[in-house]
Amino acid sequence: MTEIQNIEKKANKQIFIGAIMGYIAIGINILSGLLFTPWIIESLGQSQYSLYTLSNSLISLFLIDFGLSATANAFLAKYRANNDDGAIKNFLGLIYKLYLIIDAIIFVVFVVLYFVSPYIYQGLTPSEIEQFQVCFLIFAAFSLISLPTSIFNGIINAYEKIIWIKFLDIVQKLLFIIFTSISIVFEWGLYALVAINAGSNLVIIGIKYLIIRFKLKVKPTFRNKMTWALAKPVLLYSLWAAIEGIFTHISASISPSILGIVSDSTNIALFGLVSLILYYTTLMGNILGPTLLPKLARYYEEGEEVFRKKLLNLSVAIGKVQLVIIMAIILAFGCFGQEFVLIWMRGDSSYLPAYYGILIAIIMQILYLPQLVLRSAMFTTNNVKMLALSAIVKAIICVGLSFGLSYILGFMGASLAIMISSFVDICLRNYFYLKKLNVSLFTFYKKTYFRMLIVAILCLPIALTMHFYLSFDSAITHGVLYKFLIEGSVFVVLYLGLTYFIGLTKNERNIINSKILKIFKKSN
Hints:
The chain is mainly alpha-helical. The chain is built from 21 helices and no strands.
């Protein structure tokens, strides 16, 4: 086995195991969000929980990494592909200096916000303002420490130690759950909860630093002056990465504010469920994004023809996995989503209309998420500007349509605005993929989607038949829950069976079989 083949084998193992651990981390995140949050609210009370949420959300408005994390991942992956250790050290020194400058600016903003908060939040009582300011101070202190360290994930990803990041994500979530549970049981109160949230993250940041410093042995060089010639390519790249991130964030988070202007609190509450499910589906689809840049960087160094061929193969391989997951979510929710909403909202049927909004909002993910590799390749080939332009168009359409459609249709209008703007975004991105990556999208769609569409066509009628003809008792604790569990179990078996025998090619089945055989051999 050659050195390059050995590197690729190790990278593939990291990606495979990292993906599994990533889905475990998201599963814990979803379960804690759906089950753990009501316990926190019950313990703190609505007033204190709102202060916790308010202080955290205010801080998060200013904690955009300005594209530097994505920039670090892309540049470091490129330098590693070229074995340029000097460039790595100089680049890290530059990035840390830029982060410290940003940190200083944000510190000034936080100081101003602390003192003007009583005038901003006049609806809070003096006692609530005092508690809010304490929470704000804790979150702000943690944020100022954590912002310069947000590059840590980029460094570890660039060195293809993906398993460590995913493992630490799981550890952080478990630490938060364990110590928050202790805090609730012993009634330590609001400040303890805020401190636990910050502290669990600080522990993980410390571990990541130790990994980088002593395991990877990566050190920045601060001796070189930060000249414009050195900073220009990094700043331009990070500027477009920041624009892409900011406008994507606007598209995802602006709708509640618009509903607050043109609609009412009921529609905001219903859209809250829509945005949460949309967030989780997007999160599941973006697990592998940053982990692919080092592999793509190596492909890119092999020449344009090799890069295009390997990019297409990787896009189909990863895209097929993404499609299997997102199609399962959309098909299952489309058929059994009403039962899910009822169970989630503990039988409150007033939330049932959210089912339609959720389905509309997440439907475009079936086109967007399988193209993850192509999006990552735009970062590798320094075409992030095109992604930023597409994100700007998407945000403009989303905001414009949200105002008009939400005024008429409420939260359903906001969901439609997300769907339409996402479709336009996908069309633009596909145009850029064709022009800048010169990849055959026809081949990509054919190999990724054709077989899985047959699976959907076969699976959907059976699932819908179960939904409409399986009777149940109206009691939420028995009927709807049992119906959902029966439907879900049958659907999972049916979907996995059809996917294995019809959705996958013979070669794909052989790969899965070999992975399973290796696991059994190791266990024996």
